[in-house]
């Protein structure tokens, strides 16, 4: 093969590799965005439960501590600048467990009577 025959093949190969690198970078950014979006939803659920009296003070602080642990795990996962599939799955599982804890604490019948009263009179 001559240099003229190799050049187009090399050009196509480089373009394909660059495209794959961009696609994988977008997928990694998607993982980070998913974790951040889930974090915001979790915080909103916790604050709403506290606001309307469904969560007691102890439940509220325990759920915030759980969210802070998930946030610390996220920062630790981002130390190398990206989130691997295993790290993403672990963080996602922690967030799902936290959602379940928020639901369980919100529906367990224990209420903050003062906040419930304030919420009802607004």
Describe this protein's structure.
The protein has one domain. It is built from 4 helices and no strands. The chain has helices at 3-51, 57-77, 85-106, 113-121. The protein is elongated. Residues 22-28 have low confidence and may be disordered.
Task: Tell me the distance between the termini.
Answer: 81 Å
Q: Helical proportion? A: over 70%
Q: Which structural class matches the secondary elements?
A: mainly alpha
Uncertain runs with pLDDT below 50, 5 residues or more? 22-28
Total number of domains: 1
**How many helices in DSSP terms?**
4
Q: Mean pLDDT, as a whole number?
A: 82
Tell me what portion of residues adopts beta-strand conformation.
under 5%
What is the structure about, briefly put?
This protein is mainly alpha-helical and 122 residues long. It has helices spanning 3-51, 57-77, 85-106, 113-121.
Primary descriptors:
mainly alpha, 83% helix, 122 residues, 4 helices
Task: Detail the topology: elements first, then pairings.
Elements: H1 3-51, H2 57-77, H3 85-106, H4 113-121
Helix pairs in contact: 1-2, 1-3, 2-3
